[in-house]
Amino acid sequence: MLRRQLLHFGAFTLGGLPVSLVRAQGGAQKKLVVVMLRGAVDGLSVVAPYGEREYAASRPQIALPNPGAEDGLLKLDSLFGLHPALSPLKRHWDGGQLAFVHASGSPDPTRSHFDAQDYLESGTPGRKSTPDGWMNRLLAVLPGEPAPTRAISQGSTPPRIFAGTASVASLGLGPNAMQRRAIDNPQMQAGLAKLYANDAQLSSTLRDTTEGRGEMARSMAAAEPRSMDPSADAGAPSARSFAADARRLGTLIRKDPHTQLAFTAVGGWDTHVNQGAARGQLANRLASLGEGLDALAAGLGDAYRDTVIVVVSEFGRTLRQNGNGGTDHGRGNVMWLLGGPVAGGQVLGDWPGLDTAALADGRDLAVANDFRQVLAAVLRRHLGLSETALATVFPQSPQTWRHADRLMRT
Question: Kind and range of the H or E element at 100?
Fold first, then answer.
């Protein structure tokens, strides 16, 4: 079973820390953080097209009021407004460090959370046989020297997006994310080194484990005490606990010069019932998310100017609200791009509109911008990947996104 896990994830757990079999290639200054919203967040509430009459007409109870009204949207332009619960992020928009790509998503029409998340993380929509994740393939083609903390996954289990042979370190949730374990005992390390002396793969894994844990522990020890939230981290994070985890991740990235890629996920976005508008279930979760993303930026500190944060979800939700005051599984969604290199203050991409004739299956915002094209633009312009390397990361990607030149600062 252990060997099968190694082949699939390139990782296993020694003392609670998953690390991989093969070392990643080394560090660089440009950084990428991917935040996945599992459960399909309602992008039509995150960035609401209030300028389209169909928006309010299709959502009599859950449409956000226009900018300027009580509990109204935060105006982005004449068509789009930001959910008021995301007010901590408005300064990033105003400062030119936050942009959105609306009507984005996967070309595969599935409405299954499991399949859609798999396609988003593998980077190969419609193909279930892909063995690895696109961030692991990205890690394998980045230039530089090996480092056990080149890539960090925050969470309790290895995500599909990092499955593969390149080395990925793991950071847990909560203030005890780096508590001492058996593997940190020098006697244990010496014993395992002797045990694995004749196995090159396991010796490499042990070396990555001990070096990675040591490096992250040093970085965490240098973190600001106020970033450590003592609250419990079981279940869906509250605004306070998510913000603490996000700040902790940002601080670790800033303190460790080797870290270039990171991934974390937030669940709880499947709002079939009682979604709410400016207040309620979705608003509460967006407030948590907004505070957390702002805390991530704060934790990054000076590194924020060299970091792009991408927020994605597996698919969007229906234009029309359902009979339970919620929304069902849809198609097009909105991607978020945050950070110093982002050409912010824009809602980018092709916008198909909300006319009935323009809706996918007559019910959903259409996907007009392939998520792989948007990500490829970030990888090429921010991380400097060649066309050959991009073809490795996204082997089925369509032609270059026509809005790519507007996405990043030159």
Answer: strand 98-105
DSSP string for residues in 293-350: HHHHHHHHGGGGGGEEEEEEES--B-SS--TTSS--B-S-EEEEEESTTB--SEEES-
Distance CA 304, CA 308 (A): 8
Judged against a pLDDT cut of 90, whether residue 327 lies above it is answered with yes
Strand order from edge to edge, sheet including 74-75 = 47-48, 81-82, 74-75
Query: 116 and 105 in contact (C-beta within 8 Å)?
Result: no
**pLDDT beyond 60 at 49:** yes
Point out which residues pair with 342 in neighbouring strands.
Answer: 408
The domain tally of the chain equals: 1
Distance, CA of 256 to CA of 203 (rounded, Å): 24
Terminal CA-to-CA distance of the chain, rounded, Å? 48
Query: Cα 145 vs. chain centroid, distance in angstroms?
Result: 25
Rounded Cα–Cα distance for residues 348 and 90 (Å): 17
Angle between helices 186-195 and 200-221 (to 10 degrees): 160
Convert the pLDDT of each residue in 172-228 to its tens digit: 888 665 555 555 556 656 666 666 676 665 555 555 555 555 544 544 444 443 323
pLDDT at 8: 42
Residue 237 contacts by C-beta under 8 Å, 6 or more apart in sequence? Answer: 173, 245, 266, 288, 292
Predicted structure pTM score: 0.83
What integer pLDDT is reported at residue 156 of this predicted model? 84
For residue 103, what are the domain limits? 2-406
- What is the Cα–Cα distance from 115 to 346, expressed in whole angstroms? 30
